[in-house]
Amino acid sequence: MEMEWPLILFTFFVCLASGILLGQGVMTVLGKGKSMQLASLVSSLVALAVGGISVFFHLQHWERIFNGFGHITSGITLEFIGCVVFFVVLVVYFLMMRRAEDGMAPKWCGVLAIIMGVAMPAITGDSYLMEAIPVWDTFLLPVYYVFNAVFFGGLSVLVIAALTKCDDVNDTAIWLAIGGGVATAVALIAYAVFINSLGGVYSDITYYFDPTLPDSSMIDVQEDFVGTVLAGSNAPLFWIGAVIVGVALPVVAAFMAKRALAGGKQQQVLPLAGAGLACALAGGICWRMILYMVAVSIFALY
Q1: Which helix (H) or strand (E) covers residue 65, if one does?
Q2: Which residues contact 227 (CB under 8 A, 6 or more apart)?
Q3: Which residues cross the membrane (predicted)?
Q4: pTM of the prediction?
């Protein structure tokens, strides 16, 4: 399947926005992160806006998007509702923060932020579940998005905290990043194994050609698509890009930031967290690219 960059960027920035809001929510519930609240809200809003704008480039006639809203359970409708509710939660959090005498939003705002931070990537992942594309039709997709959001959130909070000199959140943010990284790695490998097992779905056909590309050669689904993630043409992008660069290096960076804090080297936290976040974001893009490169629709076969 041809890569749809607007959708790749949409899911990417949704997870980033959700992770930042979720991370700030965790800190709020714990009574931490007072001085970084505004920076977190602005960062989350910007990421959500970029993702929302990106998705419009997927449509040749974006004004027709409103026709899809007539079906309340359609994926695009649920995503739209999720974005609106997400924005409302950001506004409520901001107003409660400004209203508070001590400048700290109440803990129930943190709970709302956590709920929204988990719900939005889950809703986004659920909207891509479709029987016509077996590679996407698994609960592992929304699970990956949720874990990815937690991973992004922990690293993002660590970066924002370092920039705003909010030192009381460092330990919690590091453990959030490490936990999210380990969970993301498990989801990634489980997802890759699942994709590798999908050859049987096409067993009745084995070989076929795309009817929209009659001049193209026959395709072996297992060899050319679903079998390429663990060992094949997409294996380097998976193991090096998504796993090593996207997960292993950021987790190592988080551990190094923890050691730096223990050794009183606060100045090392920002470069370590920044490098870890950059690697995690790159790995997230790599995996989303793979999900398109191995997606073979069975709709065209019948």
Answers
A1: helix 65-68
A2: 196, 199
A3: 6-26, 38-59, 71-96, 108-130, 142-161, 173-194, 237-257, 269-301
A4: 0.90
Q: Is 207 left (phi over 0), alpha (psi -120 to 50) or beta?
A: beta
* Contact between residue 219 and residue 210 where contact means Cβ atoms under 8 Å apart: yes
Going by C-beta distance under 8 Å and a sequence separation of 6 or more, which residues neighbour residue 168?
32, 33
Distance CA 46, CA 158 (A): 18
CA 57 – CA 55 distance, rounded (Å): 5
What is the per-residue pLDDT across 94-126, written as a single tens digit (0 to 9) for each?
999 999 888 899 999 999 999 999 999 999 999
**Look-up of token digits 């060899």:** 223
Backbone angles phi, psi at 211, to 5 degrees: -65, -20
Which regions of 98-175 does DSSP assign to beta strands (E)?
A: none
Q: For tokens 């709970």, name the residue.
A: 111
186-231 pLDDT, tens per residue? 999 999 999 998 877 776 555 555 666 667 666 677 777 888 999 8
Q: Which of 141, 83, 81, 149 is nearest to 114 (CA)?
A: 149
Site of tokens 């590091």: 174
* Residues 6 or more apart whose Cβ sits within 8 Å of residue 91: none
Query: Which SS3 state, helix, strand or coil, does residue 62 take?
Result: helix
